Amino acid sequence: MSSVASKIISVKRNTTKKAGASPELSEKKERLNLFLKKKGFKSTRQRDIIVSEFLKVGEHVTAEELYKRISNKYTNIGLTTVYRTLKLLAESGLAAERVFADHLTRYEPLAAEEHHDHLICLKCGSITEFEDQKMERLQENIAAEFGFSVKTHKMELYGHCRKCAG
């Protein structure tokens, strides 16, 4: 890794905070319940289990992967319920829906103020999240130079991780 890259990249290797019975988990569930109430939906035990498991995973996950984790313990929860709950989490701002080069829809837990970008390995599929304030400022400056008002953006860099480039 070049010395420049090592200075500017703050890497988080799938270390999104693991959620237990923490105040953060309770706060997120409360936010979801308020969102559901506003939309006219009820809070259900199945939805609560799915949300808890999703937040415990703490990384990018497909609906199928989450369903496999849940269905071993809770046989009464179907794949459709997992899909619907993940969509609701994304609508509520508690999750982000991501589609990378493999065209699989993944969901990741998200705090409202959080922004990060992704390094995606084309060989093993690993996803590394990173944040870089210099890069964010550069993007803002470029947008301002062109008189462009950015509402949101995403950066995905595709290549090979250290292990696969080996």
Keyword list:
166 residues, alpha+beta, Dna Ligase, domain 1, Arc Repressor Mutant, subunit A, 7 helices, 6 strands, globular
Briefly characterize the structure.
The protein has 166 residues and is an alpha+beta fold. It is built from 7 helices and 6 strands.
Describe the structure.
Helix 3 packs across helix 4 and helix 4 packs across helix 5. A hairpin with a 5-residue loop joins strand 4 and strand 5. This protein has 166 residues and is α+β, with helices and mostly antiparallel strands. The chain starts with a helix and ends with a helix. The chain is built from seven helices and six strands, in the order αβααααββββαβα. The strands form two sheets. A four-stranded mixed beta sheet has the order 1-5-4-6. A two-stranded antiparallel ribbon has the order 2-3. It has two domains: 59 residues, Dna Ligase, domain 1; 95 residues, Winged helix-like DNA-binding domain superfamily/Winged helix DNA-binding domain (Arc Repressor Mutant, subunit A, Orthogonal Bundle), CATH 1.10.10.10.
